[in-house]
């Protein structure tokens, strides 16, 4: 446990972290990769280039300092990040390396303001927080390996089928190369792939949502090909999967992980709100919910730019036609020719509060997934409709960020 003196010192750094947090975390990652190049095999370098990982870590440090009196308040974040760490292969031996470089970056950026007392207090705080991560992640590693069909680390899977779902989304059906059983998963979880791309010095590890129904003899992941935009190049791994991975190829896969899941036994109405490829974890949830309770009251509203980039149309139409309790609606921002004639097309434009007010039950549970601006808009719209934050659940693809507009 931390002494009150140590806690007071940590709390005194809150304004400093608010001002200099991203500078500290940017320098931290630079130091880490210079001193330990092997860490490049674990961390997503695309998120590094975009500054997303630095921002997420800065926010985590700020939250830790802010809640140091009640550190248990950040345990939900520890569990969420722990799932990603377990999928990526972060181990206890990595934490001292991370701590050493983080404290060195703090001292380097803050200069004389980083007194021995401050660095000492943060060293104690880091040791405690790292211990929480290690304990949570060790339990996750044990559970992943000991469950029926489970395994430790990465396991080779064969691409048995590759299906183009839209102009930008492709599904990969994966079966274990050894022919053994595979672990089941909670609807909404993801797989972590370890990919060796020819010409690159380091492996690439990415999380991809499971889009099928749990309990099958295979896994299905559905991947959006990330195209160049806003000055950023094509997505490294998604482009490789789309263009260079074929039926019969082998992919290295970690056991399912993730805490964005649906309890199918809930008696409350469920509303799914997806944008673009955000449909993938919600589709798994929908399949599972309807398999458990075919009469469950469900509303599914999907937003896409237009029909050519809208995946799983036939699959969703089949579910809607066989389950009268499922209300399915499509909103295209810029519908193309014939898009407005599609089954379940609701309107052109975007999903907003007035539209949702005609579709939802206020007592429902809401599950949201899509690009950050989409999720921000959905959370704001639900807030306008007086939906309690406790009823709203969402998933980020990538480092955790703020949904406050």
- H/E series: HHHHHHHEEEEEHEEHEHEEHEHE
What's the overall average pLDDT, rounded?
91
Look at the helices and sheets and give the structural class: alpha/beta
Rg value? 22 Å
Main beta sheet: 6 strands, antiparallel
Please report the distance between the alpha carbons of the first and last residues: 36 Å
Query: Can you identify the CATH superfamily of the largest domain?
Result: Globins
Count of extended strands: 12
Helix proportion range: 40-55%
CATH class of the largest domain: Mainly Alpha
Fill in the CATH topology of the largest domain: Globin-like
> Any idea how many domains?
3
Largest sheet, order of strands side by side?
Answer: 4-3-6-1-2-5
List segments where confidence is low: pLDDT < 50 over at least 5 consecutive residues.
none
Write the layout of secondary structure elements.
Layout: H1 4-12, H2 14-35, H3 45-49, H4 52-66, H5 75-88, H6 94-110, H7 116-146, E1 154-164, E2 169-176, E3 190-195, E4 204-209, E5 219-224, H8 236-244, E6 250-257, E7 270-275, H9 279-292, E8 298-304, H10 313-322, E9 326-332, E10 345-348, H11 353-357, E11 365-369, H12 372-384, E12 392-395
Parallel strand pairs: 7-8, 7-11, 8-9, 9-10, 11-12
Antiparallel strand pairs: 1-2, 1-6, 2-5, 3-4, 3-6
Helix pairs in contact: 1-7, 2-4, 2-6, 5-7, 6-7
């Amino acid at each position: 446990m931390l002494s009150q003196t140590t806690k007071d010192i940590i709390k005194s750094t809150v304004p400093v972290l608010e001002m200099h947090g991203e500078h500290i975390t940017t320098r931290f990652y630079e130091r880490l990769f210079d001193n330990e190049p092997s860490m490049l095999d674990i961390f997503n370098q695309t998120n590094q280039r975009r500054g997303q990982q630095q921002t997420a870590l800065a926010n985590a440090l700020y939250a830790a300092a802010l809640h140091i009196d009640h550190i248990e308040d950040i345990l939900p974040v520890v569990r969420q990040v722990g799932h990603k760490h377990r999928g990526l292969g972060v181990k206890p031996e990595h934490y001292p390396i991370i701590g050493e470089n983080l404290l060195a970056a703090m001292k380097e950026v803050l200069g004389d303001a980083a007194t021995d007392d401050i660095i000492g207090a943060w060293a104690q705080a880091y040791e405690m927080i790292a211990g929480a991560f290690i304990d949570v992640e060790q339990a996750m590693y044990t559970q992943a390996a000991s469950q029926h069909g489970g395994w430790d680390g990465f396991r080779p899977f064969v691409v048995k089928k590759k299906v183009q779902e839209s102009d930008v989304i492709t599904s990969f059906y994966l079966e274990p190369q050894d022919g053994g059983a595979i672990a089941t998963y909670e609807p909404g979880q993801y797989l972590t792939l370890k990919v060796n791309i020819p010409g690159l010095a380091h492996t690439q590890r990415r999380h991809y949502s499971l889009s099928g129904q749990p309990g099958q003899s295979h896994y299905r992941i559905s991947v959006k090909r990330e195209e160049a935009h806003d000055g950023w190049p094509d997505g490294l791994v998604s482009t490789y999967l789309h263009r260079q991975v074929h039926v019969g190829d082998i992919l290295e896969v970690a056991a399912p992980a993730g805490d964005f899941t649906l309890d199918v036994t809930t008696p409350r109405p469920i509303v799914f709100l997806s944008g673009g490829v955000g449909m993938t974890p919600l589709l798994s949830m929908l399949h599972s919910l309807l398999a458990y309770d075919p009469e469950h009251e469900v509303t599914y509203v999907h937003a896409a730019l237009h029909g050519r980039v809208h995946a799983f149309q036939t699959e969703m139409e089949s579910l809607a036609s066989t389950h009268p309790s499922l209300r399915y609606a499509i909103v295209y921002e810029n519908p193309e020719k014939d898009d407005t004639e599609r089954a379940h097309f609701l309107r052109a434009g975007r999903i907003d509060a007035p539209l949702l007010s005609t579709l939802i039950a206020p007592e429902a549970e809401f599950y949201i997934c899509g690009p950050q601006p989409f999720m921000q808009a959905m959370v704001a719209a639900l807030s306008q409709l007086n939906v309690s934050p406790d009823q709203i659940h969402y998933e980020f693809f990538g480092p955790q960020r703020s949904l406050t507009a």
